[in-house]
Design brief:
Number of domains of chain A: 2
Number of domains of chain B: 1
Number of strands of chain A: 2
Largest sheet of chain B: 8 strands, mixed
Order of helices and strands of chain B: HEEEEEEEEEEEEEEHEEEEEEEEHEEEE
CATH architecture of chain B: 6 Propeller
Structural class of chain B: mainly beta
Strand content of chain B: 35-45%
Helix content of chain B: under 10%
Largest sheet of chain A: 2 strands, antiparallel
Largest interface: A-B, 55 and 65 residues
Order of helices and strands of chain A: HHEE
CATH topology of chain B: Neuraminidase
Number of helices of chain B: 3
CATH class of chain B: Mainly Beta
Radius of gyration of chain A: 22 Å
Strand order of the largest sheet of chain A: 1-2
Distance between the termini of chain B: 69 Å
Shape of chain B: globular
Helix content of chain A: 25-40%
Oligomer: heterodimer
């Protein structure tokens, strides 16, 4: 194989891998499928303070449990991330 | 070398493919038996001009509009179209005669009701007296027996509620005797392995209505398109049909994260298609204002819509009406076969008249 062919081959492989990487990284919600029942670290990182600022303002109910297991509810919506 | 070339071509195709869209597909009912519905600009009522701020739901009753204003110092406004007067009811607060968080309005006969999901009290407004000086609505506590109600309507002497319940999706209560009867399993859309506790949170935001005879109840989920219709038979409900317009896109947390004070067991992805904004009813059908919007595209306007589905009381789809304005609420007047909608366009909150 000539040097020129090797150079072209390397370029094509790099471009293909690059596009695969971009496709994987920027696919919307990659890694989260509908009705995913696994723990999601992104959720855990957002939670913790006794505030309803975790919920965005919509005409629905944002529901949670406090440290004592008591229900707390206020207007809003809890987004996944 | 040829095999390597084929491999490279395959790699390129894989790399160049369009990003997959995992948003649930829109319901085909949007295009089924569909038509457009116009409204007359001259018949509109501008609520902003009446100093009615951030209205979210409306109910029409004769010459009155009862309007839910959940961010105002008084949670309800009653606008009399004949006199032009606006009456304010239920001051904000936790105390007696006060209210905190309201989601929906429902009319049964001469009474408009709404559950305060912050305090668990159902407020009932008597339409014949609500414009009288000194009138005070009636409050009924639904937190008896440790219940956490999130939505409720009255059906005769009983009150039907949904909430964080694990013995059934609905509870029929007689507040005077403190009697509670739970019935009907949660719908099947979610994973059957979910606990009833998680299902109750998942189905927390609903619009509840009964038919005028109070023999059937419809429960429409706001966060995804599930319409549940049940017969009311004494103290028990029996499911007639459940309609699922789309597949929900939610994330569930099964246990409390270590060290977290407050945790939310259910969260919705930004591609989740929102469900029903409001219901209005007649003897023959259910008018369901539908969102079909995603958080990603509409942010905090996901709770509004431009589509009204008509279902019969068995849950069969009859028609689809596309309306020009983005609306958060609808109400039906059987006397003149007219739908009214609460429109939010160009910063204006208006009641528009949709002649069917």
């Amino acid at each position: 194989m000539t040097k020129k062919k090797k150079f072209i081959l390397t370029g094509i492989i790099t471009a293909a891998l690059g596009m695969l990487f971009i496709n994987f990284v920027f696919t919307p919600n990659s890694g989260i499928s509908p009705l995913a029942f696994e723990n999601v670290e992104a959720l855990a990182q957002q939670e913790g303070s006794a505030s309803h600022s975790q919920c965005i303002e919509t005409g629905t109910i944002c529901f949670g449990w406090d440290a004592n297991g008591h229900p707390i509810q206020y207007p809003g919506l809890k987004p996944a991330f | 070398m040829k095999k390597l070339n084929y491999l490279l071509i395959a790699l390129c195709i894989a790399g160049c493919q369009a990003a997959s869209d995992i948003a649930p597909e829109a319901t085909p009912l949007l295009q089924t038996k569909a038509s457009s519905l116009a409204f007359s600009r001259t018949e509109s009522i501008n609520l902003t001009d009446l100093d009615i701020i951030h209205p979210t739901k409306i109910i029409r009753a004769d010459s009155l509009f009862v309007i839910l204003t959940p961010k105002s110092p008084y949670r309800f406004a009653v606008y009399d179209t004949r006199s032009g007067e606006v009456h304010r009811l239920v001051p904000a607060g936790y105390g007696e005669g006060e209210g905190l968080y309201y989601l929906t309005l429902h009319r049964q006969g001469n009474t408009v009701s709404s559950l305060d999901f912050g305090t668990g009290r159902l407020v009932e407004i008597d339409l014949e007296q609500c414009c009288q000086p000194g009138y005070a609505p009636q409050f009924t506590d639904l937190t008896t027996n440790g219940k956490t109600p999130l939505g409720a309507v009255r059906a005769g002497n009983r009150i039907i509620s949904t909430g964080i319940y694990t013995d059934g999706r609905y509870c029929v209560s007689d507040p005077e005797s403190r009697f509670d009867q739970f019935s009907v399993a949660y719908p099947d859309c979610a994973d059957p392995n979910l606990t009833d506790s998680l299902k109750s949170v998942f189905y927390a935001s609903n619009c509840l209505v009964t038919n005028p005879a109070a023999t059937r109840i419809a429960c429409a989920n706001m966060q995804y398109g599930c319409l549940d219709i049940c017969d009311i038979e004494g103290e028990r409900l029996t499911r007639v049909n459940e309609v699922h317009l789309t597949r929900p896109a939610a994330v569930f947390r099964h246990s409390r994260p270590a060290g977290k004070a407050i945790w939310h067991p259910v969260a919705y992805t930004r591609n989740n298609l929102f469900g029903f904004c409001d219901l209005a009813v007649s003897d023959d059908c259910i008018y369901a204002l539908y969102s079909g919007r995603t958080l990603r595209e509409y942010s905090n306007n996901v709770d509004k819509g431009r589509v009204i589905f008509l279902f019969d009381w068995n849950g069969a789809h009859l028609r689809t009406l596309h309306i020009p304005n983005s609306c958060s609420s609808i109400t039906y007047d059987s006397e003149n076969n007219t739908l009214y909608a609460l429109s939010h366009e160009n910063g204006q909150d208006e009641i528009i008249t949709l002649n069917l």
